[in-house]
Design goal:
Structural class: alpha/beta
Radius of gyration: 20 Å
Strand content: 5-15%
Shape: globular
CATH architecture of the largest domain: Alpha-Beta Barrel
Order of helices and strands: HHEEEEEEEHHEHEHEHHHEHEHHHH
CATH superfamily of the largest domain: Aldolase class I
CATH topology of the largest domain: TIM Barrel
CATH class of the largest domain: Alpha Beta
Mean pLDDT: 96
Number of domains: 2
Helix content: 25-40%
Largest sheet: 7 strands, mixed
Bound molecules: iron/sulfur cluster
Strand order of the largest sheet: 6-7-8-9-10-11-12
Number of strands: 12
Number of helices: 14
């Protein structure tokens, strides 16, 4: 009989497959999930991943796997996995007939509420797993005006497809404050504020107003927020985010190689002083926020594994929680139709990232606070190795009864 950790590592590998490949599903099966009533529906506020699916069809945000790991849910007809319902529960089934039971998250209470100006709160802050919420203040990026959007990004295509259907719009600070207060009253304890570039890079004033509203609505001076921004040309601006009450800062570099940066992120190259300035901004941010309190994501699979890991190692040693979640080529992006590396590639990068984090001393809490989605493969390695999942306590209880 495999040990619990061995079973969890099998589940971790399955998660990587489901996250990269998605599932095929008949709309009739989706209807059985009770999305938008008992079960949580996906609100496409920034990026979207479903292929060949009408915007009007709701899907869940993620699967809950048998031992408690969580995998992003997205629909892809090409996947080897399909979602089935046997009359009692849901399963993912592959072409060899391997069937794995899955569950879906309950809908948060605040998804049924509105802000004081009548805006549905579910369109203001998306609820991720593990008490984390995510606010995309803008669901558009101004880089489209000059056709310099990042090549992997589908923010503007997502806004065109889902903006009207799901009612996702620009968010005002008061709406965000009220929604964060409602979500925190239900147990949320970390948030990220993000969004596309706004014209003339006027985001700093906006982020400060948002922080004021959140503090006023929640009564919390430290609301455990991450401000996700583009590298400011004037690095002195970074201190303002700290003074406003954000605990962590995210400045996503997207790729490590400077030539790739120029090619994949032409708008960031032009607006933010180039890739070397981006690295300087990260170093400066660590000086302001502290080690382990600044994050930078790279799109896992756009460049070679060696280059990605070099970036993760160099930035981590500087105190930046540098991560490379697996790339899922977004429909509507310039790279639509491309393929991400195999799941094993992403598992290997996650394992090596985790080893680097252990060497530099990043704790789970630091990684949790610095990231917008607390369900990367690297988070899971902490959960498995530090026995953080409820299944460990359940297993110990069973052993105690049997002894
Ligand atoms: S800066 Fe790049 S990644 Fe960010 S929203 Fe704009 S196009 Fe997308």
């Amino acid at each position: 009989m495999p040990t619990l950790k061995e079973r969890l590592y099998d589940e971790w590998a399955l998660k990587a497959e489901l996250t990269q490949d998605g599932v095929s599903v008949h709309p009739e099966v989706l209807r059985r999930i009770a999305l938008g009533s008992a079960a949580q529906e996906t609100v496409n506020c920034l990026f979207s991943y479903n292929r060949d699916l009408a915007a009007e069809i709701d899907v869940p945000p993620y699967f809950i796997l048998p031992h408690g790991l969580i995998a992003l849910f997205h629909v892809d007809r090409r996947s080897d996995w399909r979602l089935e319902h046997d009359g009692r529960g849901f399963f993912v089934v592959d072409s060899d007939g391997r069937a794995v039971p899955v569950r879906f998250p309950e809908r948060p209470g605040y998804y049924a509420r509105q802000t004081s100006d009548g805006t549905p709160m579910r369109t203001v802050a998306v609820h991720n797993s593990d008490d984390v919420i995510f606010v995309a203040y803008s669901n558009e990026c101004s880089l489209q005006a000059t056709s310099r959007d990042c090549l992997f990004c589908n923010i503007n295509a997502t806004a065109r497809k889902y903006g009207d259907v799901q009612g996702v719009k620009w968010k005002y600070p008061r709406q965000i404050g009220e929604t964060v207060a409602a979500a925190y009253a239900e147990g949320a304890r970390h948030l990220t504020i993000s969004g596309g570039f706004v014209p003339e890079r006027r985001e700093v004033e906006y982020y400060l107003d948002v922080a004021d509203e959140i503090r006023a609505a929640t009564g919390l001076d430290d609301f455990n927020g991450t401000a996700c921004i583009g590298a400011p040309r004037d690095l002195d601006v970074i201190a303002k985010y700290r003074e406003a009450g954000y605990r962590t800062l995210a400045i996503n570099i997207e790729v490590w190689d400077e030539h790739f940066f120029r090619a994949y992120c032409p708008g960031k190259e032009q607006e933010c002083g180039g890739r070397d300035h981006w690295v300087r901004a990260l170093e400066h941010a660590v000086g302001v926020f502290g080690r382990g309190r600044v994050r930078s994501n790279m799109v896992g699979g756009l460049e070679s594994k060696a280059t990605t890991l070099e970036g993760i190692e160099i930035l981590s040693r500087k105190g930046v929680v540098a991560m490379s979640p697996g790339w899922i080529p977004n429909p509507g992006s310039a790279l639509e139709g491309h393929r991400s590396p195999e799941p094993a590639w992403h598992l290997d990068v996650a394992r090596k990232t985790y080893q680097i984090y252990r060497q530099v001393g990043f704790t789970f809490e630091q990684v949790y606070d610095a990231t917008a989605v607390p369900q990367t493969l690297v988070h899971d390695l902490y959960r498995i190795e530090e026995e953080r999942l409820p299944v460990f306590a359940e297993e110990r209880a069973k052993e105690a009864v049997a002894a």
